[in-house]
Design brief:
By secondary structure, this protein is an alpha/beta fold. The chain has helices at about 15-25, 60-65, 75-85, 170-180, 190-205, 215-230, 245-255, 270-275, 280-305, 315-325, 360-365, 370-375, 395-415, 465-480; strands at about 5, 25-30, 40-45, 70-75, 85-90, 95-105, 115-125, 125-130, 135-140, 145-150, 155-160, 210, 230-240, 265, 310, 350, 425-435, 440-455, 460, 485-490. It folds into 3 domains: about 5-180, Rossmann fold, CATH 3.40.50; about 190-375, HUPs (Rossmann fold, 3-Layer(aba) Sandwich), CATH 3.40.50.620; about 395-490, 2-Layer Sandwich (GMP Synthetase, Chain A, domain 3). The structure holds xanthosine-5'-monophosphate.
């Protein structure tokens, strides 16, 4: 199968490039080791400066070793130019957002495009001088070398981001690159499913399998694939009591409707609550929940018998991010996946989804019959409502938040904006304020509503939700949810805010 490798310079859109290429029917992955086994290589964007020693560089002799076509995007575009003797300079100001680029559409990389195209820019530095034998094939009013090619060496560069939807014909540019590489476009999810099921049948056979299912899309899809492969599996769902309204019930229903047997729902509400009593520190909450979860899973697994294989719903970005933590990344939060078990468990690990992206898992979910509403569900953190209740977690607060959460989701879905948002949810603040209701003084909690738009959760913009919808949410919550008398709307983007509150 033909493959395209993406070299990661730390850009926020790096995974998006690989996903777009897969959408065009060619398998693509973040490259660990650049080689000619790829049909083509894309060099991603990145936050560094190509001329700085501290910034990521290409492996030594990259261009001597690689003779397949290479496309550089943003930082990658500058990197190619620099490697061949061009000059990249610090820009005076950041060029950011939609721009009109003048493109030379006689270049094979811009085949079928107009001379004027809308593109998405995000950079400070610029190429100010191209290497000899490179041709300038694009410019904007503030960036004179916005694209180049060197047809003999099969090198292409664009300063803008073709992988982002704001570059109107960006996918045409990526498609042109695929044509230049002579890739066959034969990567299809339906084939993937069939292959995976027969692979699971062969690899697992009669061995005994155990798996934790959180109720999220990834673990549910992995469980269904196992069931389709007719392997002997037991599934454990830990109901921590920190879940959204009816969440554990829904998991049971989905498993039942799709004929997946041996689901064990373990009610552990009291255990979690008593361990979390008096805990207010966000990191401490996360750690307690993660540890408790593992403890309970191991206990239950022991009761069910002996197992050979542990299956997990790990997807590709989880795997890549834990294998290659960015050098410059600081720990903001210990992200934890309920269902993420430590490698000390003495079982063989099988991760059927570990080369897929989230949207591919969703499409597979669709193909194998998961309800659309379930598949399109917003991401939900492993520690669940615990990190949306600021301060101490109590039954009373959990119930308030669960009820408010159900109301927010219902109203957002009713107005058909759920799918356009990355996430929308309420968070309960640990402060009370005075209000008046039916001529009486009230003194109740304040609730914050968070709604964000995002591509990958690395950055997010607060969503400009219609005032009337916000009003409806506020009215319903204050009227129906006992314990809240004031609703706030969060207008912080990420950064500087994070999406979750803790
Ligand atoms: P933050 O709050 O870091 O969140 O901006 C980014 C995305 O990750 C989700 N999130 C988590 N997911 N376990 C998870 O599985 C976690 O501990 C966790 N914390 C945050 C969050 O919902 C958002 O989509």
């Amino acid at each position: 199968m033909d493959r395209i490798g993406v070299f990661d310079f730390g850009g926020q859109y790096c995974h998006l490039i690989a996903r777009r290429i897969r959408d065009l029917g060619v398998f693509s992955e973040i490259m660990q080791d650049p080689s000619n086994t790829y049909s083509g290589i894309i060099l991603s964007g990145g936050p560094g400066n190509v001329y700085s020693e501290e910034s990521p560089q290409l492996p030594e002799d990259f261009f001597e070793k690689i003779d397949v076509p290479v496309l550089g995007i943003c930082y990658g575009h500058q990197m190619i130019a620099q490697a061949f003797g061009g000059v990249v300079q610090k820009g005076m100001e950041r060029e950011y957002g939609k721009k009109i680029a003048m493109l030379n559409n006689t270049s094979p990389i811009f085949n079928g495009l107009e001379n004027n195209e809308q593109v998405w820019m995000s950079h400070f530095d610029q190429i100010v001088e191209l290497p000899p034998s490179f041709e300038n094939i694009g410019s904007t009013d503030t960036c004179s070398i916005a694209a180049f090619h060197n047809l003999e060496e099969k090198l292409f560069g664009v300063q803008f981001h073709p992988e982002v939807i704001h570059t109107t014909n960006g996918s045409k540019i990526l498609e042109n690159f695929l044509k230049i590489t002579n890739c066959k476009r034969e990567w299809k999810l339906k084939d993937w499913i069939e292959n995976k099921i027969s692979e699971l049948k062969q690899f697992i056979g009669q061995k005994q399998v155990i798996m934790a299912v959180s109720g999220g899309v990834d673990s549910t899809v992995a469980a269904i694939l196992l069931s389709k492969a007719d392997v002997k599996a037991h599934f454990i769902h830990v109901d921590t009591g920190l879940m959204r309204l009816d969440e554990s019930k829904e998991v049971s229903e989905i498993f039942r409707d799709l004929g997946v047997e041996n689901l064990h729902v373990i009610n552990t509400k009291e255990r979690f609550l008593s361990k979390l009593k008096g805990i207010t520190d966000p990191e401490e909450k996360r750690k307690i929940i993660g540890k408790m979860f593992i403890e309970i899973f191991e206990e239950e697994a022991k009761k069910l018998g002996d197992f050979d294989i542990l299956v997990q719903g790990t997807i590709y970005p989880d795997r890549i991010e834990s294998a290659q933590p960015s050098q410059h990344a600081t720990v903001i939060k210990t992200h934890h996946n309920v269902g993420g078990l430590p490698d000390t468990i003495d079982l063989d690990l099988v991760e059927p989804l570990n080369d897929l992206y989230k949207d591919e898992v969703r499409r597979i979910g669709e193909i194998i019959g998961l309800p659309e509403k379930f598949i399109k569900r917003h991401p939900f953190p492993g520690p669940a409502l615990a990190i949306r209740i600021l301060g101490e977690i109590t039954i009373e607060r959990l119930e308030i938040l669960r009820e408010a959460d159900a109301i927010v989701t219902e109203i957002i879905q009713k107005h058909n904006i759920y799918d356009s948002l990355w996430q929308v949810f309420p968070a309960l603040l640990p402060v009370k304020s005075v209000g008046v209701m039916g001529d009486k003084r009230t003194y109740e909690y304040i609730l914050a509503i968070r709604a964000v738009e995002s591509i990958d959760a690395m950055t997010a913009d607060w969503a400009r939700i219609d005032y009337d919808i916000l009003e409806e949410i506020s009215n319903q919550i204050v009227n129906k949810v006992h314990g809240i008398n004031r609703v706030l709307y969060d207008i912080t983007s990420k950064p500087p805010g994070t999406i979750e509150y803790e």
